[in-house]
Amino acid sequence: MTKHFPFFLSFSFLILFSLQAFASPQLPDYIIFKGDTLATYNLLIEQYFQLQAKPNEGKLFGLSFRDGSSFNCWRGYQAIYKIDNDSLFLVDIIHCGERRNGKIDKTASAEKMKEIFNDKFSNDRVYINWFSGDMKFPLTNKVLRWDGVFYTIYEKEKVISISSGRVLTTQDVENYVDDPNRIDRKDKSKISDILFKKLKKAKWKNKNDFDCSDEYMVTIEENGNISKVRMLYSEEEIEKYYDKDEYNFCIKKVYDALKSLKFDIIKDKGKPIAEDIYIHIWVKDSGKLENWTN
Question: Does residue 87 have a pLDDT over 80?
C-alpha cells in the first residue's frame, strides 16, 4: 500500500488549524428589545458597507486587529440596535467594551453615524432599511455550536424576522430535536469518535491493495443522515496524487460504512442545518484502523 499525504498539503492543514487555534472570541453587538439589552451576532453595519462598496469602513474608530485593536474585537467597534414601533434602528456605534464599562460617548457615536450614514441619520438614529432576514438572540446559555470566533447557535433562541427594517414576526424556537431513536450530537467534538467507531468495524484490507489513509469531511445533512463524504483536496490535487479507482473506492468505502448512522437534528434560527465533520484515519498494513483525528 502507498501512503499519500503530500508534504505541502499536510503542512497547509497544519497552518489552517494553527490559525483557528489562535482565533479569539469576538465581542457581540447589542439589540434593545422590549426594554432588555441583549447580545446579538448579526453584522448589520458590515452588510451596509458591502452594499455601498465600502470595504475599508470596518475600521470605524481607526482601530483594527492588525494595528492594535483588542484581540476580542477585531472590528474596533460595537453596534447597538433598537426595535421601536416594529422597526429596526441603529442607535449607537461605540468603542469596544464601552457599554460594558458603563459609559457611552453619545457625542462620538452620533458623529460617527453622521459621517457614515449622512442623511440616513435622523433623530439620533439610523433606520436599517437595508436589512431583510432573521435576527436572533439566546433564550438560554446552552450553546449548540460556536465557530470559535463570533457566530453562536443556542439551544433556545428568539428569532425576529425582518423585511427592509420592518419586523414581520417574532417567535421562540428550539434548535435541537432530541430523538431517542437517533444518535445524540449536541457535543460536536464527540461526533468524529462516533464515526471512527463505525469505520473501525469495516474491513480495510482489499484485493487491490488500495490505501484509504487520509483526511475526510463527512456531511450530516439537514435530516440528520449522512449524505456525502469527500477528501480535503481539490480536483486537481486528487488527479495528481490519487489513482482514480483508488479514490472512488475509498470514498465509497467510507460512505458505505457510515450511511446507516442517524443523528439528531440541529437547527439554526429554528431551521434544520447540515454540517461537516472532519475525520482523519490511518490504515495500517495489517488492515487495522487508527484514529488520527486529534
Answer: yes
